[in-house]
Amino acid sequence: MKKAIYPGSFDPVTFGHLDIIERAADLFDEFIIAVLINSQKNALFSADERVSMIEELTKEMGNVRVRTFEGLTIDLAKEVGANVLVRGLRAVTDFDYELQIAQTNKVQYPQLETVFLTTSLAYSYLSSTIVREFASHGGDISNFVPESIIPLIENKYQYR
Ligand code: ADP
Questions:
Q1: Is residue 8 in contact with ligand 1, taking CB distance under 6 Å?
Q2: Among residues 9, 87, 128, 132, which one is catalytic?
């Protein structure tokens, strides 16, 4: 059975993430989206809020699960019995860092294979940081995230 994990911050989830999720989930029997609980980063959404948003957006996808995790990705892979780690690549700027992490993980846990999916052209510019930046200035984020989560994002900035 091919079980994959797709770890990330997803703060918030974007069309870029959802594109990778839709394309990657088809390749595996089970696909686990793992939301990082990162206490150092000043996150916009709590990990639980991020999980609920992604759950709602992927509820029609039968083999997709969403959960939080803390610590090392290889420990998560061991815990859930995943053999593949999925990451998305947007541009060469992602490559150096991702290659280093993938190679480190391979040394530390050879049973886990890292698989990269390249971004769809339409989303190569898109990141959660861009979404937060636009939303914080009251900009239109409808090209970046699904309509259903726009009010949740805007709400966060209204009370800051
Ligand atoms: P992290 O903080 O781990 O980079 P992110 O939420 O920023 O978490 O991203 C999670 C994963 O999704 C990463 O592999 C990232 O490269 C990928 N990703 C983010 N945005 C896009 C996009 N627009 N197109 C393709 N992959 C993306």
A1: yes
A2: 128
